[in-house]
Amino acid sequence: MAKAPKYRFCAGPWNFSEGRDPYGPETRPAQTFDWKLQALKELGFDAMMFHDDDAVPEIDSKSPAQVLKEAKELKKRLDGEGLVAEMVAPRLWFHPNTVDGAYTNNDKRLRRYAIDRSKQAIDIAGVLGTDLIVLWLAREGSYLRESKNARRSVDLLVEAMDAMLTHNKKIRLAIEPKPNEPMDHAYIPTIGHALAVAQLTTAPARVGALIESAHAILAGLDPADEIDFAMAFGKLWSLHLNDQNGLKFDQDKPFGSANLRVAFNQVRALERNAYGRGGEFICFDVHPFRTTKPEHYLKHLSNSRDTFLRLVDKARSYPEKAAQALIADRNYQDLDQLVLNHLMGS
Ligand code: XUL
Ligand code: MN
After folding, report:
1. Can you give the CATH number for the domain in which 94 is found?
2. What is the end-to-end Cα distance of the chain in Å, rounded?
3. Tell me: the pLDDT tens digits for 66-117?
4. Is residue 101 left, alpha or beta, with left meaning phi > 0 and alpha meaning psi from -120 to 50?
5. For ligand 1, is residue 54 a contact (CB within 6 Å)?
6. pLDDT single digits (tens) 212-243
7. Which structural domain, as residue segments, surrounds residue 284?
8. Contact yes or no for 281/274 (Cβ under 8 A)
9. How many domains does the chain have?
10. Which residue puts its alpha carbon closest to atom 10 of ligand 1?
11. How many Cα atoms are found within 13 Å in the side-chain-facing hemisphere of 37?
12. How far apart are CA 32 and CA 341, in angstroms?
Protein backbone atom coordinates (compact mmCIF):
# COMPACT_ATOMS: atom_id res chain seq x y z
CA MET A 1 0.00 0.00 0.00
CA ALA A 2 1.50 3.34 -1.05
CA LYS A 3 1.94 5.74 1.86
CA ALA A 4 -0.31 8.78 1.69
CA PRO A 5 1.25 12.11 2.59
CA LYS A 6 -0.02 14.07 5.57
CA TYR A 7 -3.56 15.08 4.77
CA ARG A 8 -4.45 18.73 4.23
CA PHE A 9 -7.95 20.03 4.88
CA CYS A 10 -10.27 22.44 3.13
CA ALA A 11 -13.81 23.85 3.32
CA GLY A 12 -15.81 26.54 1.56
CA PRO A 13 -17.58 29.65 2.85
CA TRP A 14 -20.94 28.00 2.08
CA ASN A 15 -20.15 25.33 4.67
CA PHE A 16 -20.94 27.87 7.40
CA SER A 17 -24.58 27.87 6.39
CA GLU A 18 -27.35 29.46 8.36
CA GLY A 19 -29.90 26.67 8.61
CA ARG A 20 -32.43 27.77 6.03
CA ASP A 21 -34.44 24.97 4.40
CA PRO A 22 -37.43 24.97 2.01
CA TYR A 23 -39.77 25.07 5.02
CA GLY A 24 -38.19 27.63 7.28
CA PRO A 25 -35.81 30.54 7.58
CA GLU A 26 -32.27 30.81 8.93
CA THR A 27 -31.59 29.58 12.46
CA ARG A 28 -28.12 31.12 12.86
CA PRO A 29 -26.77 34.58 12.07
CA ALA A 30 -24.84 35.00 8.83
CA GLN A 31 -21.12 35.36 9.41
CA THR A 32 -18.83 37.65 7.45
CA PHE A 33 -16.23 36.38 5.03
CA ASP A 34 -13.48 37.49 7.44
CA TRP A 35 -15.08 35.50 10.23
CA LYS A 36 -15.10 32.42 7.99
CA LEU A 37 -11.44 32.89 7.07
CA GLN A 38 -10.57 33.14 10.77
CA ALA A 39 -12.69 30.07 11.49
CA LEU A 40 -10.70 28.01 8.99
CA LYS A 41 -7.47 29.30 10.55
CA GLU A 42 -8.74 28.43 14.01
CA LEU A 43 -9.61 24.94 12.82
CA GLY A 44 -6.11 24.58 11.40
CA PHE A 45 -7.43 24.00 7.88
CA ASP A 46 -5.06 24.63 4.97
CA ALA A 47 -7.29 25.81 2.14
CA MET A 48 -10.57 27.42 1.18
CA MET A 49 -12.65 26.43 -1.84
CA PHE A 50 -14.62 29.08 -3.69
CA HIS A 51 -17.54 29.65 -5.96
CA ASP A 52 -16.75 32.55 -8.28
CA ASP A 53 -19.13 34.78 -6.33
CA ASP A 54 -17.75 33.63 -2.98
CA ALA A 55 -14.48 35.13 -4.21
CA VAL A 56 -16.09 38.23 -5.74
CA PRO A 57 -19.60 38.88 -4.36
CA GLU A 58 -22.27 40.20 -6.77
CA ILE A 59 -20.03 39.27 -9.62
CA ASP A 60 -22.63 39.87 -12.35
CA SER A 61 -22.90 43.56 -11.51
CA LYS A 62 -19.14 44.22 -11.74
CA SER A 63 -16.86 45.01 -14.65
CA PRO A 64 -14.18 42.43 -15.57
CA ALA A 65 -11.51 44.86 -14.32
CA GLN A 66 -13.29 45.28 -10.97
CA VAL A 67 -13.69 41.50 -10.63
CA LEU A 68 -9.97 40.94 -11.14
CA LYS A 69 -9.12 43.77 -8.75
CA GLU A 70 -11.24 42.19 -6.00
CA ALA A 71 -9.77 38.75 -6.73
CA LYS A 72 -6.30 40.23 -6.24
CA GLU A 73 -7.35 41.73 -2.91
CA LEU A 74 -8.69 38.33 -1.84
CA LYS A 75 -5.43 36.66 -2.84
CA LYS A 76 -3.58 39.08 -0.56
CA ARG A 77 -5.89 38.27 2.35
CA LEU A 78 -5.45 34.53 1.80
CA ASP A 79 -1.66 34.94 1.65
CA GLY A 80 -1.81 36.99 4.84
CA GLU A 81 -3.63 34.16 6.62
CA GLY A 82 -1.42 31.45 5.12
CA LEU A 83 -4.39 29.80 3.39
CA VAL A 84 -4.52 28.72 -0.25
CA ALA A 85 -7.43 28.66 -2.69
CA GLU A 86 -8.15 25.03 -3.56
CA MET A 87 -10.48 25.63 -6.49
CA VAL A 88 -12.93 28.02 -8.09
CA ALA A 89 -16.37 26.84 -9.28
CA PRO A 90 -18.65 28.96 -11.46
CA ARG A 91 -22.03 29.21 -9.71
CA LEU A 92 -24.30 28.52 -12.62
CA TRP A 93 -27.57 27.90 -10.84
CA PHE A 94 -28.65 31.18 -9.18
CA HIS A 95 -28.93 33.76 -11.94
CA PRO A 96 -32.20 34.10 -13.92
CA ASN A 97 -30.20 33.21 -17.04
CA THR A 98 -29.64 29.70 -15.66
CA VAL A 99 -33.24 28.84 -14.76
CA ASP A 100 -33.41 26.24 -17.54
CA GLY A 101 -29.77 25.17 -17.42
CA ALA A 102 -26.41 26.77 -18.09
CA TYR A 103 -24.29 25.00 -20.75
CA THR A 104 -27.28 22.92 -21.87
CA ASN A 105 -29.84 25.72 -21.87
CA ASN A 106 -32.06 25.56 -24.95
CA ASP A 107 -31.40 29.27 -25.58
CA LYS A 108 -28.10 30.02 -27.27
CA ARG A 109 -27.83 33.50 -25.73
CA LEU A 110 -28.12 32.03 -22.24
CA ARG A 111 -25.56 29.32 -23.00
CA ARG A 112 -23.20 32.15 -23.97
CA TYR A 113 -23.73 33.73 -20.53
CA ALA A 114 -22.76 30.44 -18.86
CA ILE A 115 -19.57 30.09 -20.90
CA ASP A 116 -18.56 33.74 -20.40
CA ARG A 117 -19.12 33.45 -16.67
CA SER A 118 -17.05 30.23 -16.59
CA LYS A 119 -14.19 31.98 -18.39
CA GLN A 120 -14.33 34.70 -15.76
CA ALA A 121 -14.19 32.05 -13.01
CA ILE A 122 -11.05 30.71 -14.71
CA ASP A 123 -9.51 34.19 -14.66
CA ILE A 124 -10.31 34.48 -10.94
CA ALA A 125 -8.70 31.09 -10.31
CA GLY A 126 -5.60 32.35 -12.11
CA VAL A 127 -5.38 35.32 -9.76
CA LEU A 128 -6.00 33.13 -6.69
CA GLY A 129 -3.23 30.79 -7.76
CA THR A 130 -5.17 27.59 -8.43
CA ASP A 131 -5.46 25.67 -11.70
CA LEU A 132 -8.49 23.70 -10.51
CA ILE A 133 -11.97 24.58 -11.78
CA VAL A 134 -14.81 22.55 -10.30
CA LEU A 135 -17.95 22.00 -12.32
CA TRP A 136 -20.95 20.99 -10.28
CA LEU A 137 -23.41 20.87 -13.17
CA ALA A 138 -26.40 21.79 -11.03
CA ARG A 139 -28.98 22.50 -13.71
CA GLU A 140 -27.58 20.41 -16.56
CA GLY A 141 -30.32 17.81 -16.77
CA SER A 142 -34.05 17.78 -17.08
CA TYR A 143 -37.17 18.17 -14.99
CA LEU A 144 -39.06 16.45 -17.74
CA ARG A 145 -37.46 14.20 -20.28
CA GLU A 146 -39.04 15.79 -23.35
CA SER A 147 -37.87 19.36 -22.61
CA LYS A 148 -34.29 18.76 -23.73
CA ASN A 149 -32.38 16.57 -26.12
CA ALA A 150 -29.99 14.51 -23.98
CA ARG A 151 -27.83 13.59 -26.99
CA ARG A 152 -27.42 17.24 -27.90
CA SER A 153 -26.74 18.09 -24.27
CA VAL A 154 -23.63 15.91 -24.31
CA ASP A 155 -22.37 17.89 -27.32
CA LEU A 156 -23.17 21.17 -25.55
CA LEU A 157 -21.35 20.10 -22.39
CA VAL A 158 -18.28 19.14 -24.42
CA GLU A 159 -18.47 22.42 -26.36
CA ALA A 160 -18.55 24.40 -23.10
CA MET A 161 -15.65 22.44 -21.60
CA ASP A 162 -13.62 22.90 -24.78
CA ALA A 163 -14.23 26.66 -24.58
CA MET A 164 -12.89 26.65 -20.99
CA LEU A 165 -9.92 24.43 -21.79
CA THR A 166 -8.98 26.72 -24.68
CA HIS A 167 -9.49 29.91 -22.66
CA ASN A 168 -6.63 28.89 -20.40
CA LYS A 169 -4.35 26.02 -21.41
CA LYS A 170 -3.15 25.50 -17.84
CA ILE A 171 -6.40 24.85 -16.03
CA ARG A 172 -7.87 21.48 -15.10
CA LEU A 173 -11.60 20.84 -14.91
CA ALA A 174 -12.90 18.61 -12.12
CA ILE A 175 -16.47 17.51 -12.76
CA GLU A 176 -18.49 16.95 -9.56
CA PRO A 177 -21.23 14.48 -10.48
CA LYS A 178 -24.58 14.37 -8.70
CA PRO A 179 -27.51 12.31 -9.98
CA ASN A 180 -30.39 14.57 -8.95
CA GLU A 181 -31.37 17.67 -6.95
CA PRO A 182 -32.12 20.22 -8.14
CA MET A 183 -32.80 18.30 -11.36
CA ASP A 184 -34.96 15.21 -11.63
CA HIS A 185 -32.15 13.60 -13.63
CA ALA A 186 -28.70 15.09 -14.19
CA TYR A 187 -26.73 14.42 -17.36
CA ILE A 188 -23.54 13.59 -15.45
CA PRO A 189 -24.68 11.50 -12.49
CA THR A 190 -21.57 9.43 -11.76
CA ILE A 191 -17.79 9.39 -12.05
CA GLY A 192 -18.07 7.01 -14.99
CA HIS A 193 -20.11 9.61 -16.87
CA ALA A 194 -17.64 12.38 -15.94
CA LEU A 195 -14.63 10.43 -17.18
CA ALA A 196 -16.41 9.36 -20.34
CA VAL A 197 -17.30 12.96 -21.20
CA ALA A 198 -13.68 13.96 -20.50
CA GLN A 199 -12.64 11.72 -23.39
CA LEU A 200 -14.77 13.70 -25.83
CA THR A 201 -13.06 17.00 -25.07
CA THR A 202 -10.05 18.38 -26.91
CA ALA A 203 -7.88 17.98 -23.79
CA PRO A 204 -8.95 14.79 -21.97
CA ALA A 205 -5.83 14.89 -19.77
CA ARG A 206 -7.09 18.14 -18.22
CA VAL A 207 -10.59 16.90 -17.39
CA GLY A 208 -11.03 14.86 -14.22
CA ALA A 209 -13.35 14.54 -11.30
CA LEU A 210 -14.36 15.47 -7.79
CA ILE A 211 -16.23 12.89 -5.75
CA GLU A 212 -18.73 13.90 -3.11
CA SER A 213 -19.71 11.05 -0.76
CA ALA A 214 -23.37 12.13 -0.55
CA HIS A 215 -23.70 12.44 -4.33
CA ALA A 216 -22.37 8.91 -4.88
CA ILE A 217 -24.77 7.56 -2.26
CA LEU A 218 -27.65 9.41 -3.96
CA ALA A 219 -26.66 7.58 -7.17
CA GLY A 220 -27.01 4.29 -5.27
CA LEU A 221 -23.25 3.75 -5.40
CA ASP A 222 -20.57 3.14 -2.80
CA PRO A 223 -18.36 6.26 -2.64
CA ALA A 224 -15.31 4.06 -1.91
CA ASP A 225 -15.77 2.30 -5.26
CA GLU A 226 -16.17 5.66 -6.98
CA ILE A 227 -12.87 6.79 -5.40
CA ASP A 228 -11.06 3.64 -6.54
CA PHE A 229 -12.53 3.96 -10.04
CA ALA A 230 -11.48 7.60 -10.46
CA MET A 231 -8.04 6.93 -9.03
CA ALA A 232 -7.48 4.01 -11.40
CA PHE A 233 -7.50 6.73 -14.09
CA GLY A 234 -5.43 9.19 -12.02
CA LYS A 235 -8.44 11.50 -12.15
CA LEU A 236 -9.46 12.21 -8.57
CA TRP A 237 -8.42 15.82 -8.20
CA SER A 238 -10.65 16.83 -5.32
CA LEU A 239 -13.00 15.32 -2.81
CA HIS A 240 -16.06 16.43 -0.85
CA LEU A 241 -16.34 14.09 2.10
CA ASN A 242 -19.66 14.10 3.96
CA ASP A 243 -22.48 11.67 4.62
CA GLN A 244 -25.98 10.92 3.49
CA ASN A 245 -28.71 8.78 5.02
CA GLY A 246 -30.34 7.03 2.06
CA LEU A 247 -32.04 8.34 -1.04
CA LYS A 248 -33.49 11.69 -0.10
CA PHE A 249 -32.50 15.35 -0.37
CA ASP A 250 -28.77 16.06 -0.27
CA GLN A 251 -28.02 16.07 3.46
CA ASP A 252 -24.32 17.00 3.65
CA LYS A 253 -24.02 15.39 7.10
CA PRO A 254 -20.71 15.26 8.94
CA PHE A 255 -18.34 12.64 7.55
CA GLY A 256 -19.20 9.20 9.00
CA SER A 257 -22.41 10.44 10.62
CA ALA A 258 -24.81 8.10 8.80
CA ASN A 259 -22.60 5.10 8.05
CA LEU A 260 -19.23 4.69 9.70
CA ARG A 261 -18.35 1.61 7.69
CA VAL A 262 -18.96 3.36 4.38
CA ALA A 263 -16.77 6.23 5.67
CA PHE A 264 -14.07 3.75 6.73
CA ASN A 265 -14.03 2.23 3.26
CA GLN A 266 -13.64 5.66 1.67
CA VAL A 267 -10.62 6.31 3.86
CA ARG A 268 -9.17 2.88 2.96
CA ALA A 269 -9.62 3.70 -0.72
CA LEU A 270 -7.87 7.06 -0.27
CA GLU A 271 -5.01 5.41 1.61
CA ARG A 272 -4.44 2.62 -0.89
CA ASN A 273 -4.35 5.12 -3.75
CA ALA A 274 -2.17 7.63 -1.87
CA TYR A 275 -4.72 10.41 -2.37
CA GLY A 276 -3.03 13.73 -1.66
CA ARG A 277 0.28 12.76 -3.23
CA GLY A 278 -0.39 15.21 -6.07
CA GLY A 279 -1.25 18.02 -3.63
CA GLU A 280 -5.00 17.20 -3.48
CA PHE A 281 -6.95 18.32 -0.42
CA ILE A 282 -9.52 16.62 1.80
CA CYS A 283 -12.48 18.99 1.55
CA PHE A 284 -15.55 18.60 3.74
CA ASP A 285 -18.75 19.68 2.00
CA VAL A 286 -20.72 19.49 5.23
CA HIS A 287 -23.33 21.77 6.77
CA PRO A 288 -24.30 22.34 10.41
CA PHE A 289 -27.59 20.69 11.32
CA ARG A 290 -30.47 23.18 11.27
CA THR A 291 -30.63 22.82 15.05
CA THR A 292 -26.98 23.79 15.56
CA LYS A 293 -26.51 26.81 17.85
CA PRO A 294 -24.23 29.68 16.78
CA GLU A 295 -21.69 28.77 19.49
CA HIS A 296 -21.28 25.36 17.80
CA TYR A 297 -20.77 26.81 14.32
CA LEU A 298 -17.48 24.97 13.67
CA LYS A 299 -18.37 21.56 15.11
CA HIS A 300 -19.50 19.89 11.86
CA LEU A 301 -16.06 20.63 10.39
CA SER A 302 -13.90 19.74 13.39
CA ASN A 303 -15.97 16.59 14.00
CA SER A 304 -15.66 15.54 10.35
CA ARG A 305 -11.90 15.95 10.51
CA ASP A 306 -11.66 14.07 13.83
CA THR A 307 -13.66 11.18 12.39
CA PHE A 308 -11.55 11.22 9.23
CA LEU A 309 -8.29 11.09 11.18
CA ARG A 310 -9.52 8.34 13.48
CA LEU A 311 -10.54 6.34 10.43
CA VAL A 312 -7.07 6.89 8.95
CA ASP A 313 -5.73 5.22 12.11
CA LYS A 314 -8.28 2.45 11.69
CA ALA A 315 -7.26 1.96 8.05
CA ARG A 316 -3.58 1.82 9.01
CA SER A 317 -4.16 -0.62 11.87
CA TYR A 318 -6.56 -2.84 9.92
CA PRO A 319 -5.55 -6.49 10.48
CA GLU A 320 -4.61 -7.01 6.86
CA LYS A 321 -3.04 -10.46 7.32
CA ALA A 322 -6.02 -11.90 9.15
CA ALA A 323 -8.32 -10.34 6.56
CA GLN A 324 -6.32 -11.86 3.68
CA ALA A 325 -6.47 -15.30 5.30
CA LEU A 326 -10.27 -15.03 5.58
CA ILE A 327 -10.49 -13.86 1.97
CA ALA A 328 -8.35 -16.82 0.82
CA ASP A 329 -10.71 -19.13 2.70
CA ARG A 330 -13.77 -17.36 1.23
CA ASN A 331 -14.88 -16.89 4.83
CA TYR A 332 -16.62 -13.58 4.27
CA GLN A 333 -18.85 -14.26 7.25
CA ASP A 334 -15.91 -13.79 9.61
CA LEU A 335 -14.39 -11.09 7.39
CA ASP A 336 -17.55 -9.08 7.97
CA GLN A 337 -17.21 -9.52 11.72
CA LEU A 338 -13.49 -8.71 11.61
CA VAL A 339 -14.35 -5.33 10.07
CA LEU A 340 -17.06 -4.67 12.66
CA ASN A 341 -14.79 -5.69 15.53
CA HIS A 342 -12.03 -3.46 14.19
CA LEU A 343 -14.38 -0.49 13.96
CA MET A 344 -15.83 -1.20 17.40
CA GLY A 345 -12.35 -1.33 18.85
CA SER A 346 -11.86 -4.94 19.81
C1 XUL B 1 -23.99 20.74 -4.28
C2 XUL B 1 -22.56 20.79 -4.00
C3 XUL B 1 -21.87 22.07 -4.28
C4 XUL B 1 -20.56 21.89 -4.96
C5 XUL B 1 -19.83 23.14 -5.33
O6 XUL B 1 -24.60 19.57 -3.93
O7 XUL B 1 -21.99 19.84 -3.51
O8 XUL B 1 -21.72 22.77 -3.09
O9 XUL B 1 -19.70 21.15 -4.14
O10 XUL B 1 -20.48 23.87 -6.28
MN1 MN C 1 -19.91 19.32 -3.15
Report:
1. 3.20.20.150
2. 24
3. 999 999 999 999 999 999 999 999 999 999 999 999 999 999 999 999 999 9
4. left
5. no
6. 999 999 999 999 999 999 999 999 999 999 99
7. 9-321
8. no
9. 1
10. 136
11. 17
12. 44
